[in-house]
């Protein structure tokens, strides 16, 4: 116990040692054990192969037996004629998805939170969540059917207004099609965490707002959004930590000879170089560069957030 003049007594609690905590709460730790093992095996275990980016891979010598070449493959990637285009494409798609897609789940959660009829709310939630469970192959198949030139529903509707465009082949339409379809597929699912945050808002705040004469819009602006702000900041930090990790499957399936100049990103290039061309060391170096950039972005945005809003991951 520590006593300060003019203040109440404040108890200072020391952190319990880890091993003592494990002995005292071993049942909880046993429940966590499968998750800990899964992370150790599938997330930290593969990090052993990072050294492949600094070696000349040799099948006969394994991961550690190849000749050490230092930053050879990193420099090869930086000097590649495709480097600028890939970085530009990756950042363009990532930032477009983040800027346009980040506010939609928040708006969706705020709108659904205003619905008072339980059946209507649950029905809308089911409708909004359903696209998330569509596999990526089926999603791209739907896009091919809907956006097919001359025969697709969307293309036919645009043709009625005199707009004739191949949305699947036009390089200028690739990013809008990718971003809008991604928002449609995942916005409902991503709104769950914001709905959970809104469910924890103290109802007395709503009562106080009504007493002060606040309408729905004023309540959203002065009660809901301030309560969502910490969650929004955390989600933004996590999104920035994956800024270069553009979804591989969807982009790879949407690529064709006409849009490849804007559709080639780091993840698809790593696949083509590593799996198709068997350049494992080169692809490992590109993948490691991608991970390092994501990590730096995560740390930077987290520090900025801590200074500006005192909210962060760590």
Quick description:
The protein is mostly helical and about 325 residues long. About 65% of the residues lie in helices and about 5% in strands.
Report on this structure:
The chain has 314 residues and is mainly alpha-helical. 65% of the residues lie in helices and 4% in strands. Strands 1-2 form a two-stranded antiparallel sheet. Helix 3 packs across helix 16 and helix 12 runs antiparallel to helix 16. The N terminus is likely disordered.
Q: What characteristics describe this protein?
A:
16 helices, 314 residues, single chain, disordered N terminus, two-stranded antiparallel ribbon, 65% helix, 2 strands, 4% strand, globular, mainly alpha
Structural class: mainly alpha
What portion of residues is helical?
55-70%
Q: What gyration radius follows from the Cα positions, in whole Å?
A: 25 Å
The number of strands is 2
Strand content: under 5%
Q: Could you list the spans in which at least 5 consecutive residues all have pLDDT below 50?
A: 1-12
Mean pLDDT: 86
Task: Please work out how many helical segments DSSP would assign.
Answer: 16
Largest sheet data: 2 strands, antiparallel
N-to-C series of helices and strands = HHEEHHHHHHHHHHHHHH
Q: What order do the strands of the largest sheet run in, or round the barrel if closed?
A: 1-2
Q: What characteristic shape results from the CA principal axes?
A: globular
Distance between the termini: 27 Å
């Amino acid at each position: 116990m520590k006593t300060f003049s003019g203040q109440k007594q404040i108890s200072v609690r020391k952190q319990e040692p880890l091993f003592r905590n494990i002995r005292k709460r071993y049942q909880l730790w046993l429940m966590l054990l499968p998750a800990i093992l899964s992370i150790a095996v599938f997330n930290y275990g593969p990090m052993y192969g990072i050294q492949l980016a600094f070696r000349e891979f040799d099948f006969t010598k394994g991961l550690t037996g190849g000749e050490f070449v230092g930053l050879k493959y990193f420099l090869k990637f930086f000097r590649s004629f495709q480097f600028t285009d890939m970085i530009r494409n990756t950042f363009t798609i990532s930032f477009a998805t983040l800027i346009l897609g980040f506010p939609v789940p928040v708006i969706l959660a705020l709108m659904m939170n205003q619905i008072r009829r339980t059946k209507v709310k649950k029905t809308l939630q089911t409708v909004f969540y359903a696209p998330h469970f569509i596999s990526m192959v089926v999603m791209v198949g739907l896009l091919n059917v809907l956006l097919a030139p001359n025969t697709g529903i969307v293309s036919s509707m645009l043709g009625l207004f005199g707009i004739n465009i191949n949305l699947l082949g036009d390089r200028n339409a690739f990013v809008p099609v990718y971003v809008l379809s991604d928002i449609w597929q995942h916005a409902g699912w991503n709104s769950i965490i914001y709905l959970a945050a809104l469910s924890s808002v103290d109802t007395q705040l709503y009562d106080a707002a009504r007493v002060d004469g606040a309408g729905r819009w004023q309540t959203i602006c002065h009660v809901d959004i301030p309560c969502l702000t910490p969650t929004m900041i955390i989600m933004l930090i996590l999104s920035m930590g994956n800024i270069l990790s553009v979804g591989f499957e969807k982009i790879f399936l949407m690529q064709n000879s006409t849009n490849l100049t804007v559709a080639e990103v780091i993840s698809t290039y790593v696949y083509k170089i590593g799996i198709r061309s068997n350049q494992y060391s080169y692809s490992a170096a590109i993948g490691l560069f991608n991970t390092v950039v994501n990590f730096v972005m995560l740390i930077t945005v987290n520090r900025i957030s801590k200074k500006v809003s005192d909210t962060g991951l760590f």
